[in-house]
């Protein structure tokens, strides 16, 4: 059996678009001809529309990560849904067209049952199977990389962050991770 028979990994990036970080991620993905899914925050789309349009133009997938990165456990369902809809507007007004339901990832992975019920008709809620912990400054680059690589398996959804908080770790981790994924025979695709 061939080493790369249908092995796929789904890289996703939360919290952007962020100048200098998202640009870096896009360059690294282009080097290995890989596509990823970007769960964007609405206010960041509005602050950096050209960068958002660039990731669309390069064929990457976009998902909703709320307008203001609200924690669902600390936000009323009504306010959470309104914030999610505001992000959806920012996504649409800046040129992203999607087929079917728009992807949605709750910030911090925290969402209530009521919020899920309110959103599930219009959104496909996507979590992750591997968390890189790249936003934690106390995590060394090697720890972030090892955490992802040690859990790699077919159809894994890896979450990283294209944010200022994660910039040091992402810039040191992503190139190595992309090489390791390719060397292990994984195709990198969108969710």
Can you tell me about this structure?
The chain has 191 residues and is of the alpha/beta class. It has 7 helices and 8 strands. Strands 1, 2, 3, 4, 5, 6, 7 and 8 form an 8-stranded parallel beta sheet that branches. Helix 1 packs parallel to helix 7 (167-183) and helix 4 packs parallel to helix 5. The mean pLDDT is 94.
Identify the notable features of this structure and list them briefly:
alpha/beta, 191 residues, 8 strands, single chain
Fraction in beta strands? 15-25%
Structural class: alpha/beta
Q: What characteristic shape results from the CA principal axes? A: globular
Cα-based radius of gyration, to the nearest Å: 16 Å
How many angstroms does the end-to-end distance come to?
25 Å
Name the helix and strand elements from N-terminus to C-terminus, one letter apiece: EHEHHEHEHEEHEHE
Strand count, sense and barrel status of the largest sheet are: 8 strands, parallel
Number of helical stretches of at least 4 residues = 7
Unreliable stretches = none
Total strands: the figure is 8
Mean pLDDT: 94
Q: Residue share in helices? A: 25-40%
Question: Could you provide a short overview of the structure?
Answer:
Helix 1 packs parallel to helix 7 (167-183). The chain is an alpha/beta fold and 191 residues long. Strands 1, 2, 3, 4, 5, 6, 7 and 8 form an 8-stranded parallel β-sheet that branches.
Helix and strand topology:
Blueprint: E1 8-14, H1 21-31, E2 37-40, H2 42-47, H3 49-57, E3 61-64, H4 77-93, E4 102-104, H5 113-119, E5 123-125, E6 130-131, H6 141-149, E7 156-161, H7 167-183, E8 187-189
Parallel strand pairs: 1-2, 1-7, 1-8, 2-3, 3-4, 4-5, 6-7
Helix pairs in contact: 1-7, 4-5, 6-7
